[in-house]
Amino acid sequence: MGSERFIQRQPSLQEQTYQALRSAILSGELVPGHRLVETQLAEWLKVSRTPIREALQQLKQADLVIERQGGLWVAQFSSEDAQQLYDCRMALERLSVTAACQNVTDRQLAQIYRLIVTAEKVLMLESSKIMSFQLLDLDYQFHRSIAQSANNDWLVGLLDQLFDKMILLRIQTMLNNPQVLEVRWEHRQIYDAIVQRDAKAAIQAIEDHLMASQARVVRELAQIHQAQPQPSS
CA triplet 11, 12, 17: central angle to 5 degrees? Predict the structure, then answer.
């Protein structure tokens, strides 16, 4: 046989379906608590029920979809879930900023700074659902850019798994109160510490940021829970 040949494989229909549903969940198009009905999703995406069923199972494994009352629903998180997710994130992002102080390049610093400036410009616009989702995406990019600058692919992979759940968690609270995303000053403090290559200050800044965010989100979830009608005894 001759030299090796490489065939470019197109994503399977199941993979395309999974990505479409994941994107719809993480963009807020399918909101937390939305019931997922195979026939409706199949009609929406113009596919058969088989790739829908396979994609939903994959989303269950990623904890973006849950099963209850005999059906599938976009995941909703409790205040206890939020507490634990933030605790896990805190541990990973301490490592992220510490390694970033050692390994970040000037180009990566410029990218992180651009994300902060862009978020500040968005915050000057009138409050809207579109603005809130822009800020959510910029917040994700900010933290992921720091992780990438840490030069640790395993860390980025672990954070990616956590970020999906965090995005859905933030959507759940943001739909009720867009102000839960107010983070611009905290991001600047993290950035300044990384610029100075001051790992101790960076750890303190990321801890302050995530603890403040955790408190906002946990408080919001508790208020949402209290406002929901409780089942009669």
Answer: 95
Widest pairwise Cα distance in the chain? 75
Euclidean distance between CA atoms 105 and 102, whole angstroms: 9
DSSP helix/strand/coil, 35:
strand
Superfamily of domain 79-226: GntR ligand-binding domain-like (1.20.120.530)
CB contact burial 12-38 (16+ within 10 A = b; e otherwise): ebbeebbebbbebbbebebebeeebeb
Secondary structure element (H or E) that encloses residue 140, with its range: helix 129-149
Domain positions in the chain = 13-74, 79-226
Dump the DSSP string for 184-225: HHHHHHHHHHHHTT-HHHHHHHHHHHHHHHHHHHHHHHHHHH
At 126-153, the pLDDT tens digits run 555 566 788 888 999 999 999 999 999 9
